[in-house]
Amino acid sequence: MTSPDFDLDTLLGDGATLAQSRTSGEGPAGSLPIDADTLRDSPSGHLFGMTQNAGMGWRASEVARDPYLIVSTQGGLRAEDGRPVALGLHTGHWEIDRMVRAAAEAFAAHEGLPFSVMCSDPCDGRTQGTTGMFDSLPYRNDAAVVMRRLIRSLPTRRGVLGVATCDKGLPATMLALAGCADLPGVIVPGGVTLPARGAEDTAIVQTIGARFSHGLIDLEHAAAMGCRACGSVGGGCQFLGTAATSQVIAEALGIALPHSALAPSGEPVWLDIARRSALALVQLARQGTALSAILTRAAVDNAVMVHAAFGGSTNLLLHVPAIAHAAGVERPTVDDWIRANRATPRLVDALPNGPRHHPTVQVFMAGGVPEVMLHLRAMGLLHLDVPTVTGRSLGDNLDWWERSDARRIARERLRELDGVDPAHVIMGPDAARAAGMSSALVFPRGNLAPDGSVIKATAIDPSVVDDDEVYRHTGPARVFASERDAIRAIKSKGDDAVRAGDIIVLAGCGPAGTGMEETYQLTSALKHLPWGKHVAVITDARFSGVSTGACIGHVGPEALAGGPIGRLRDHDVVRIEIDRVRLEGRLDFIGEDPDAPLEPAAAAAVLASREVHPAIAAHPRLPADTRLWAALQDASGGTWGGCVYDVDAILETLRAGREVLRATRGPQDAGNP
């Protein structure tokens, strides 16, 4: 055993601080604002709550004000001047304490009593390619449960303000508020990171390892770009990934203020959004308007349509149904997503979709969500009579936005600072189609995906799409049972290397295998390798919202639930067809001989006769927490139901299981494992 670095006095203390410590103190001055009726009729918890409020230092005469709870995903600890004391897990939650403070001050200034609680969130970028990713999607459900428990732990709250930014934290916060829809609630999107001048963005910089491995960049470049990607200390990533799309969806649902999504983190407008959101919540509470009046099926329909117009992250196929379920609203189906994507082309030119690749802050300055909604309104695609957190209808909000100074100033500022025409960022449908911006999502089926799958068709490199706007790729399968093996083969230059024309099949990485990990490591590497556009990816896992290329995810059923994707072998022939005009697609195994392809039905019979690939199994380091999440969401409808916890369905499954156990074990053993 090596000698310790610190002596015991240093580690255990020399007693000096004991000599300075008190054993009693003065209580707060003043008296609680209570009367005899309050003492007789109020629960003891309400009375003790006022005692606690005074004990924490609030003015005794004001401790009975209307309480407003701020739930945030704040992470890390900053000094008063902003210097880091303890780092957060990502920039997205690093400085939203400033938003919390601004909102709290607004509540206090309007006769409210602000409370703040936190349930921080992970970073998908930080956990890419690690077992930390196994906790990413399950975190969403768990955090929503914790947040709801915190909300219910302040029984007198008049309303809830949710402040969050990133991939899982913001969906969790929306789930939490939707699950407390009997209360007034408002979401404050935590904003986006500024792009750094002369640097790579936070999507490209995640590929420095793959590019260096193939000699595309040198060590000096990798080290410099890896340092410089963030142009501000806070905010979600600069591209329209899951974090940014979640902000867009919050606003599209009507539960965040108009033009609050994608604001530049740390800037004056960002803080102002927090203040105004607090005022909106006070108004909703005074009017007695609960979130249940806002989170309706019509609001969900609007959100699905806005998602299509933005060309948003495929991860929202998991989150929007979950938010609807939490609110007690019918969940959107695949058919609803298809209808929305057929109704509108993508209207937003943003990273990573292009063609000009504007960062998200430029989307905000071009008018953001309300600007897109103006176009959708003109196309007759929105429910305009839905209520929103402004206390007005969506139609009223859009009327205001169209003639507002805020709209004019934002768009002028974009021209002034960046020399960018707002009409090149957010377009009308005719201009979008002329720019080649077709509808975004396609949901391929076939003998490899009988329950469905999804691809962001607009993210396929145009040079590999035929003139009729159909992507066709038939090639040999390269089957991997772990992302680690797949990325190793992508980086390799040896006999095991992935090559142009291959179809990477990553199976066993759905909920039961890895917690449905995100596989941006693969798609980002392929995007930035010269031959990567000639490789397709098929997986029962999911992708980052910034993923691009011919990558097909959410393949169902997952391999470990008996899905045919788990029966493929190396060199099996797979055929992919994605029609970007008709928004249709197929994903089929067609046999073992490329010169003698089988019809899909005959090939399906071949697959059915096989055993599952011997390498496919739940990851040995899959946490027990995640295994439980996978089982619960499977009983609740699985990934295509939003990975929710449907309590009634879970209880029904448990009851059915007990009945089987009683029948097989006997009544005396039915309760034993």
TrEMBL record:
Molecular-function GO term, any one: xylonate dehydratase activity
Annotated Gene3D superfamilies: IlvD/EDD C-terminal domain-like
Keywords per UniProt: Lyase
Pfam families: ILV_EDD_C, ILVD_EDD_N
Domain Dihydroxy-acid/6-phosphogluconate dehydratase C-terminal: 438-585
EC number of the protein: 4.2.1.82
Class of the enzyme per the UniProt entry, highest EC level: lyase
InterPro entries, sorted: Dehydratase_YjhG/YagF (IPR017798), Dihydro-acid_dehy_C (IPR042096), DiOHA_6PGluconate_deHydtase_CS (IPR020558), ILV_EDD_C (IPR056740), ILV_EDD_N (IPR000581), IlvD/EDD_N (IPR037237)
Highest taxon of the lineage: Bacteria
Region listing for Disordered, in residue ranges: 18-38
Domain Dihydroxy-acid/6-phosphogluconate dehydratase N-terminal: 89-397
Matches recorded under NCBIfam families: yjhG_yagF (TIGR03432)
Annotated family: Belongs to the IlvD/Edd family.
Protein name: YjhG/YagF family D-xylonate dehydratase
